Amino acid sequence: MNASQGPAVDRSALRPPQPAPDVDTAPFWEATASGHLSICRCQQCGLWLQPPLERCRRCAASTAFEPVSGDGTVSTFIIQRQPAVVGFFDKVPYAVALVDLAEQPGLRLPGRIVDIDPDDVAIGMRARARIDALAGGDFHLPVFVPVD
Question: Most buried of 41, 49, 53, 144 (most Cβ within 10 A)?
Answer without folding.
Answer: 144
